[in-house]
Amino acid sequence: MKFRINQQDLMSAINIAMKAVSKSTNIQIHELIYFECFDNSLFLKAFDGEIAIKTKVDAVVDEKGEMAVKASLIANIVRKLPNDIVIVENKDGKINIKCSSSNFNLLAFDYFEKNELSIPDTLAIEIDNDVLKRSISQTEFATSLDETKLALTGILFEFKDGFLNMVALDGYRVSLKKVKLEYPTDYEDSEYIIPKRSLLEWSRIVSDDTKTKLYKNENDLIFVSENTTMQCKVIDKNFIDYRNIINDISETSIIVDKRELINSLDRAQVLADPGRANLIKIEISDKIMLIKSNSEIGDVREAIDVDQQGPDLEIAFNARYMQEGVKACDSTKIKLNFKSALNPCLIYPENSSYENEDFTYLVLPVRLAN
Questions:
Q1: Domain named DNA polymerase III beta sliding clamp C-terminal: which ranges (predicted)?
Q2: pLDDT band for position 27 (50/70/90)?
């Protein structure tokens, strides 16, 4: 094989393929990138056991062929080449890379587990990438890190009533994003748990101004955008029925400036004790939200003006859990609904509710000793 390509174009394609290369493994094929070129197109493929990626880039192909090379090695070489035309040739198992005055020779690998990543002959779901990326960012932080609860380490994709519902929960909070979407009827009432890492890697690959086409293929989902395809294994577990968790029967409701609340929570955490679940106490009274935090080294009090409806309330939370949900809201003002000191807080953008809003966040309070 022999092809010619601009250094920056080659580096961009390698960076995409690298997202499906294992960082720590003793399985050789999971450390490789597979190159194939023909018809003035260069294809790069990689597979790490969980994600498979194929991407295409234009190149001048002098001789069609294929090769496999260690991903970290080829990435390091190409990254350090000048911005010029790179000539790559594989002959008799030896790879020659030329660019300007640089000349590298290295051994090719004989074996690679090819994954053709063919697109299924089924109808696809289309979603704008800016919407998908924002939806991922509004949910991924609420996934669990506990591998013994495998289902909760991913994000649920639920197709129901003309919406794609993306849900993440970890036992302490729930993040729900609803996306109005047209999809084939055979997707209705179907659901898939997609690993968090797969979605994060995809969000780093795709451009905001393009679309993703989503295909189902037996137990896998295939994502396609422009010249890149990703196949990810779904998590074959049952997700928790989140609808039974989100129950908005509130007694006290406040509307507060989002940025002011984020900054106050940020300052309150300076003196919060990590050993006590990053605890903050909130007192709502006379249209004032008082945030208090203390530890052995001192204490802090933050007062914010709010629009209060309902009785006064005292409640406590993990400050980080509260702050992450507030940040995920797409509005300058947000609504917080409370029932009691022992019930969850529900957070929405202003003038919203669980029934009519595309984003809902629930966070459990921390019980305080009397």
A1: 250-367
A2: confident
